Amino acid sequence: MRSIRVAAIGAVTLSLALAVSACGGGSSTAGGGGSNDSPKTLTYWASNQGASITVDKKVLKPELDKFEKKTGIRVKLEVVPWSELLNRILTATTSGQGPDVLNIGNTWSASLQASGALLPWDDKNFGSIGGEDRFVASALGSTGMKGEDPAAVPLYSMAYALYYNKKMFADAGISKPPATWDDLVADGKKLSKDGKWGLGAEGANLSENIHQVFVFAKQHGADFFTADGKPDFTSDGAVTAIKQYVDLMAKDKIIAPGNAEYAQNQSLSDFAKGKTAMVLWQTASATFASLGMKDDEWGVAPAPVRSGTPGTGTAVNSMVAGINLAVFKNTDNHDGALKFVKFMTSDAEQKILNKAYGSIPPVKAAQSDPAFNNQATAALRDTLAKSAEALPQVADESQFETSVGTAVKELFADAAAGRPVTTASVKAKLEKAQQQMPAK
Amino acid sequence: MTTTTAIAKADRRTVSGSTPGAARGPRRPGRIRRIGLPYLLLLPALVLELLVHLVPMVMGILMSFKALTRFSIRDWSAAPWSGFDNYKISVDINAPAGEALLHSFWVTCGFTVLSVGLCWLLGTATAIFLQDTFRGRGVLRTLFLVPYALPVYTAVITWAFMFQHDNGLVNHVLHDQLGLTDKPSFWLIGDNSFIALLTVSVWKGWPFAFLVVMAGLQNIPKELYEAAALDGAGMWQQIRRITLPSLRPVNQVLVLVLFLWTFNDFNTPYVLFGKAAPEAADLISIHVYQTTFATWNFGTGSAMSVLLLLFLLVVTGLYLLLTSRRRKTADV
After folding, report:
1. Full-model pTM
2. Which of A225, A231, A235, B37 is the most buried (most CB within 10 A)?
3. Are A9 and B53 an interchain contact pair (Cβ–Cβ within 8 Å)?
């Protein structure tokens, strides 16, 4: 029996969820469409945004109470860690036993949209929360496939920027943060000595790898998907871009080889300890504070470009990072869920929540608050407005994160072990990644 | 205190007094009831077994014949049938999916043989060593069982910390203290990841072998050893001629269980490496998980699971057939 139990790991886990749903009457959800059968309660899955799940509960609880006071609807909150969120959503999708409202990583929008589990935000639904015009365009760009009604609404926005250690820069005689990659490599070489390193990276974190190489590819005029949504991982631009990123460790030697196995934000603690002088990160200020680094010890500048200043096209220097809010199509409280989304995206709540998390409100009216124009957030806000672009909004996006993210992880492993990283070896890894994509 | 003892005694008397009476008396069950009762008692377990194991398994097999992707996952029963396509993809070793599956199959085979072998060897050696009574034997026995008692996640995550390149204990000892390596090695990425995985697996698995062999040793009559000693057999001869043959039935089950656990081990590689294991340590369980949940090829993942199940059934069947035949021959 043991053999039977363990052997079918993939299928059994998946189908166990189905079995449970079959017993629980979840089959009614197969046809889609929500109802208003349970107008007094809502279940909300929040992604883990703060330093811990406890912190998130502390931030969200008073706001949810406010919502209850206003509408009489009680919100049952569950904060889900990032590593579990996608699998939890998949299970909920297959079983129909999910929350009413949930946070999704904005890069997953199109993939989850393809599953048909999320409520489409047509004009009527958007109208009920004040219309699309309230939101910043770049954030709306990562809510689903082009030409279809969005699958989610932007909630928190983030962008990548270059964080640097002021004292280490001063000690190395560097007067201003690097604006181009050549500057960054030159500065990095000055900083990489005596056991200290120029730049930090999370080489074994698949999503992080994707975020970085997406920007590098943009700067080389390449994309990872063709206009009609087919994978195109092996173009010259994509290969050059990934090689340039991995070369920061392999050739330029400004990233410590040990970073090749980082996947738990160790590069941030290295930065806070003064072991590395720079990191490319999204909204890191709260994390630095929790690691004991004072606000005046670090500075923040736009992430570098190949030449000139950040902008559009090949001067893109960040992906549009952030969290979207989605409603499950089979919710039992359709109207309540829309009210909740309206509440969470209201000007007042946007200010409170984004301040708490150090992110930028995707709602225009809330963005003008001076709190989002300080040292920590001004660069992020500018980047989002001028030089950030959304990851490809295609149904295959989450598979792309896994396969290309793994390829970059393996290339970092090669670099760390001292094996050569060549154009040919990069291309071979990317070819393998492309072959792993599901057949159409 | 006295009252309790008295009641206890009285109870015991009633129980022992009533036993023969029950066999003969009017409460003697009828033939049908006698046959039916055990099945009735088994029924709850059977129903649960059906729900927990068989239903999902049948569903998994059904899924393996469907074109199940992100587009159809929400209403999977309505997904289009795809015949044997998922199986063809899985076994076509000239295409990327099949090639990768075959690679992880070989990695898993090598890993299983080494891990089970080492677990058995270590477990048996320690159990035999701890047979003799000496001071501190109890403490050692308890200590050896610690890895078996720890929650898997806690234990493996601790290993993951120890294997870290920069701050890990393993590199600290091997490189800084003993100077065995030229430079700190990578254990969680690249080729060494296989060694890391094997180390954790053996560390986790051998206490079970130790426990089972220790229990098996209790059943070997002391007289055999005394007689052998009188005949002039040394320790090694005693182990070869008495201990190992007597342990054969125990070992038969032990090796089978270890084989199945190790071949299917998911927790160790997942906690150690995350959802993308290095190529050198790409165990089949992780591979199936990645196909199913990370690249959302649910149908192909199910087909791979079914193939894995068939392989394990065949191996287990052959193993049981061979070992029981050998035992029969030995009995004759």
Report:
1. 0.85
2. A231
3. no
